[in-house]
Amino acid sequence: MAAEEATADFGTSVPIHRRAERLAHALYGLIIVTATMVAEQGHVTEVVDALGLLLGTALVLLLAHTYSSVMAERAVEGHSLGSLGRRIVVEDNLPVLIAIVAPGLLFILAGLGVMSLNTAYTAAIVFSLAALFGLGLYEGRTASMSWPQSLISGAAAGAIGLIVVAVEAFFE
Asked: 95-114, pLDDT tens digit by residue?
């Protein structure tokens, strides 16, 4: 990890495998949070409970991913991680939290009476599925695909995300 430690910021200087980790965590977070919202939409009827569901899901994902990543890094490195190594692992896992930003804002708007909680749920789910498409498009563009290929990549990511969300929600 020593060679990577000098490039631990979020910019283009981040090593490619670290960027891949961050994209994977953002996608995973979106899928799990979206599936949880789909599964719980009819059961959670209070805004504060909906926000708690989002925050609880995100916190569990962040802690579980960070813990497992630290353990894996320690196994690969053969020793405990220093403070910079731990910071890099945390930064790699923070994109899991991107999944709760838009839904959280929508639920707050519902709490303020701007929209119903059901409308907030629907908008949050639609936004999350659109974000899966957007991340697929981003992946295609960063992989130097043409725009048409990137759009196909985005559509595929959105469709796969939708399928995984549906399966996950079905079994919740």
From this structure: 989 899 999 999 999 999 99
Q: What are phi and psi of 141, to 5 degrees?
A: -70, -40
- Give Cα separations from 116 to 2, 108, 110, 111 (angstroms): 51, 10, 5, 8
pTM metric for this prediction: 0.82
Q: What is the pLDDT of residue 155?
A: 92
Segments making up each domain of the chain, as ranges: 14-171
- State the DSSP string of the chain: -HHHHTT-SSSTTS-HHHHHHHHHHHHHHHHHHHHHHHHHTTT--SHHHHHHHHHHHHHHHHHHHHHHHHHHHHHHHTS---HHHHHHHHHHHGGGGHHHHHHHHHHHHHHTTSS-HHHHHHHHHHHHHHHHHHHHHHHHHHTT--HHHHHHHHHHHHHHHHHHHHHHHHH-
Query: Please, which pLDDT band fits residue 4 given cuts at 50, 70 and 90?
Result: very low
81 φ/ψ sector (left φ>0, alpha ψ -120 to 50, else beta): beta
Over residues 108-142, the pLDDT tens digits come to 999 999 999 999 999 999 999 999 899 889 888 88
